Amino acid sequence: xxxxxxxxxxxxxxxxxxxxxxxxxxxxxxxxxxxxxxxxxxxxxxxxxxxxxxxxxxxxxxxxxxxxxxxxxxxxxxxxxxxxxxxxxxxxxxxxxxxxxxxxxxxxxxxxxxxxxxxxxxxxxxxxxxxxxxxxxxxxxxxxxxxxxxxxxxxxxxxxxxxxxxxxxxxxxxxxxxxxxxxxxxxxxxxxxxxxxxxxxxxxxxxxxxxxxxxxxxxxxxxxxxxxxxxxxxxxxxxxxxxxxxxxxxxxxxxxxxxxxxxxxxxxxxxxxxxxxxxxxxxxx
Amino acid sequence: xxxxxxxxxxxxxxxxxxxxxxxxxxxxxxxxxxxxxxxxxxxxxxxxxxxxxxxxxxxxxxxxxxxxxxxxxxxxxxxxxxxxxxxxxxxxxxxxxxxxxxxxxxxxxxxxxxxxxxxxxxxxxxxxxxxxxxxxxxxxxxxxxxxxxxxxxxx
Lengths: 285, 155
Hints:
The structure holds 2 protein chains of 2 kinds.
Chain A: E1 5-10, H1 16-21, H2 24-32, H3 42-52, E2 54-59, E3 62-64, H4 65-68, E4 70-72, H5 75-84, E5 88-90, H6 101-110, E6 117-119, H7 121-124, H8 134-143, E7 147-149, H9 170-175, E8 181-183, H10 191-200, E9 204-207, H11 216-227, H12 230-236, E10 241-242, H13 252-260, H14 266-282
Parallel strand pairs in A: 1-2, 2-5, 6-7, 7-8, 8-9, 9-10
Antiparallel strand pairs in A: 3-4
Chain B: E1 2-11, E2 17-20, H1 22-32, E3 34-43, E4 48-54, H2 57-70, E5 86-88, E6 93-95, H3 98-107, E7 110-116, E8 119-120, E9 126-132, E10 138-149
Antiparallel strand pairs in B: 1-10, 2-9, 3-7, 3-10, 4-9, 5-6, 7-8
């Protein structure tokens, strides 16, 4: 039986209490993030975590103000949510096109208490290795916070897949060896390329929040046992894989059950579900 | 003629769960002012149900286990698959809960009781349940009371 874990990839888009306080969040959920589910009380989020054997969740905003003219939760709103529940770990998002992006990140970490940075190159429309974003990477490195990058497939209309190709992260990994990078969604469909990066660069991590067809069990079995053998994750990347669900696009319970069913050792499951996330988050403290 | 519609929220706490809503239905009737008529309850969701059965825990388990056998969340490997396992652009996510929708169809989504002298008429062992097939979620149940009586505007 694995220990209570951390979900490294959730979006608090459906939290009803926050939508009631900030009505613009409803529009952001529907029109920028394209999620159609009903808004839910905060309690539902907690129950979802409980059912999946997860203690805490990283909650992610997304600032695409330059390209999409929209912010899907501000850093202040994420911090507000984190004050409502000790089970949330807030990340910041800043728009890398803005000149003051590094200062915004510094404020989010030092004043708001946020503990990482979320960037979404396909939605924010920048190549990860564009020098435009380098000052932001330097700031994240100096602050000691990880960056969770959306990588691979993007559903959102208007996004372009080319910005999320894992090879566009290689220069970042190489140029910032002390910056801890997490590529979300196993960078599917480019799982092999993402695994190659992680094998080569110890500062590259992968999160498991990938689901693009079938169901969580069958999809992850395909991606993590057929596209890449499970033994590669178990033996070579056990310290670089973190559990993520992408809730509410997928229920946490279903993603956790899928990872549990793959055949990892209990020791590896405890690393994937908890210890690796702890290590990523603690280094900046 | 009184026609009164009440919306209640039911918070499920498990993936599969039966939640007794008999009291909420009786309360809706009592507050409606209807003396003789009907009360009808319906879930507003397609991966949940409303049904009537004997109100004992062992039977609750049997109902859920049997529905899961008839419409499993994930069919046994190598047997069949669900067409619903695909990206739903209108929801911004995959639909992979066909089994839960099928359970909803099998159990039904509503129940009906007569109302006599302001009281719900039901068998002594009958309970009305909201049934969760894809929880935990906050769900809406609609309760409509129709009939003759004296309107109670305070409720």
